[in-house]
Amino acid sequence: MPSIRFRLDHPTLPALRARVAAEFGPDARIVSATEVRLGGIGGFFARRFVDVEVELVAPPVAPVAPAPARPKLTGIDALLAAADRVERAEDRGPLLAVSTETEPFTRLLDDLKSYVEGPAAPPPAVLVPSAPLAPSAEPGSLVALVGLGDDAVVVARSLALSLDNAEVSFGGSISIARGARVDDRRSAAAARARGVEAGSAGILAYGIGPGGPASVSSIEALRSIMADQVWVVVDASRKAEDTAAWVAAVRKQVSVQAMAVVHSAFSATADSVHGLGLRSGWSDAVG
Prior knowledge:
Layout: E1 3-8, H1 13-24, E2 29-38, E3 47-55, H2 76-92, H3 103-117, E4 142-147, H4 151-162, E5 167-172, H5 185-198, E6 202-207, H6 213-225, E7 229-235, H7 240-253, E8 258-262, E9 279-283
Parallel strand pairs: 4-6, 4-7, 5-6, 7-8, 8-9
Antiparallel strand pairs: 1-3, 2-3
């Protein structure tokens, strides 16, 4: 028997039976009624409906009387009838062929598919490292390497060798017995003067500590140093979210031009540091 499915806005059972009988006749039978929820947030505030399937009783088919046979036309009557048929066909115009291979039909199918399946998910973002940045080699310039703890020390010493033994100074939370300190504008000016006299750039290894008020003060002090370049030294083995947090705090105080990456060998996701959107200047994965 034929059946029909329709949706009601959460009716009561007596009201549902009455509506089915009124619309489909007393012989119609409710086959199933399923509650569904639409909309809402996390299952709350959703609208409740009932999907109802009704089995219909097919009406008896009345016998169709055969059409009376048309009298066969002959002679002039047959010719006139043929002319009438040709004239009616010309008035209707040519028939338009409907093809499922046309572009409008293809667009229609695509629209229906996107409506049913929802919009296609965007492809996953691919983190592409930008071109590397070299440290400033201008005599008297100052390149500040900012990192957690003592991470900046090994990078500073490596860059100093590449810049003809540039002077390495220390600041922030880094405490080294041998080496000049740069923590403010005056000590930064002295480091620049030594660089001009020696004909080389200066490298500052600057630590911001593990956190707390001391780290905040160290980050704020970076503004007074006024380095020509500021690089952040990021640990590839740390969580990307934690690294992004302290790097963002540094970028609120000074402009950051590049990053140096340490501990790459201890991370299975070392490339995640490229999500910071900074140019790479040094990495222990390269040497």
